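Project standup — Tuesday

K.O.: blocked on the structure for the chain from last sprint. Re-posting the sequence here as requested.
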Amino acid sequence: MDFRLNSISPSNAVKTQLLRMALVAAWFSTTLNAADAGSITGNVKFIDGPPKLAPVKVTKDQDYCGETLSNETYLIDSNSGLKNVVVFLAAAPSTAPADPEKLNLIENTGCRYAPRVIGMQKGERLRVKNNDPKLHIPHSYLNEKTVFMLSLPFKNTILDATQKIRDTGILKLVCDTHAWMLGFVHVFDHPFFAVTDENGAFSIPNVPAGTYTVKAWHEDAGVRSQEVTVVESGDVYLNFDFSKQ
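H.V.: unblocked you, prediction finished:
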């Protein structure tokens, strides 16, 4: 009989259990370190008058999508808060593992992507759902190279793109059947990022004490940078102002 140990491989159940134990250990480590961490919160504003944007012309499936759609490049509230700005640390203080159970969902709704801009950590899940009774083909690029391309022919079709995301960076998301559709997926190797809400507000929690360069990215207005110092168990307030380029 051959009793060589290398002939034995762990079952999928054992592998899953080991992964869960590793995640629990990482969670406890993060929880303990959170006591020595602060947060970066603030607002992003567009300080010039709202840009005059032409409506988006619909060139296909007008029977459902309509003749035109509102232009969502700049979404600015009554207090000048700018939505869909990605705020992040330029150099992360750690590489905490991503939660493989966390789901990020992008939906095709009304012939546009919702949300238009998301941030996620590499290793989290990403799915795309079709809420429209029309064929959508979400197609993402990283530096002009295809990352994933999905066919969603029917309403309520959901497909997973997680395994296709192998690198960090800004993924541009288009639709091969509807040329006007546009979205962005920011993939990070750390958890220190946020996307501004409809009021232009953001919050990045559990940032270890230290001095960092914080960047704010907008799809058309560009990038702004500021240096900030985070103290233990303290909150830092930070504002970013965008204007016409």
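K.O.: great, moving the ticket to review. Residues 12-34 form the longest helix (23 residues). Residues 1-9, 24-32 have pLDDT under 50 and may be disordered.
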